[in-house]
Amino acid sequence: MADHSEHDEPKAEPLMEKIAEKIHGHDSSSSSDSDNEKEKEKSSSSPSSDFKSKVSRLFGREKPIHHVLGGGKQADVFLWRNKKISGTVLGVATVVWILFELLGYHLLTLICHLAILALTLLFLWSNGSSLINKSPPKIPQVHIPEEPVL
C-alpha cells in the first residue's frame, strides 16, 4: 500500500505546478508580441500618471463610483453631492425607523392615519374655499359598473 501512494505523489506535483503557473501568469506559452508591446507602454508611461489613475480608481475599478451607482440623482444622493436631498432622505429614514422600531407603530395604522388626514384636509379645503372666494378642489367622480362588482 505504501508503494501505491509513492506513485501518486510525483504525478500530483507537476499538476499542482501547472495550476500554480496558470494562476500566477508564469505560463511561457502565453507570451506574445502584443504582450511585450503592452509591457513597454506601461514602462514608458510616467509614474505620476500611474499614481493619478490609482488614486481616482480605488480597488482596481475601471469606472468611477458615480457611474457604477447609475450616474443620476440617486448617485448624487448616495454620494452626498446634493447635501439637502441626502439630509432629507436620511431624516425621513430616521423618522420611519423611530416610528416602526422604537414606538411600535404599524404600517397599516400609518396608512389609515394618512388617509384620514388627507380626507380631513380635503374636507376643510372644499368648505373653506367658499369663505375665501376660491374655487374648491376638483375631485373626480368615480363610477364603478355594477357587473364587475357582482
Automatic annotation (TrEMBL):
- Sequence ranges of Basic and acidic residues compositional bias: 1-27
Q: Which residues form a coiled coil?
A: none
Segments spanning the bilayer are: 106-125
> Where is the protein situated, by its record's location annotation?
Endoplasmic reticulum membrane
GO cellular component terms, semicolon-separated: endoplasmic reticulum membrane
Residue ranges occupied by any Reticulon domain in the UniProt entry = 74-150
Query: What are the recorded Gene Ontology BP terms?
Result: response to bacterium
Q: Does the keyword Transmembrane helix apply?
A: yes
Q: What is this protein called?
A: Reticulon-like protein
Originating species: Lotus japonicus (Lotus corniculatus var. japonicus)
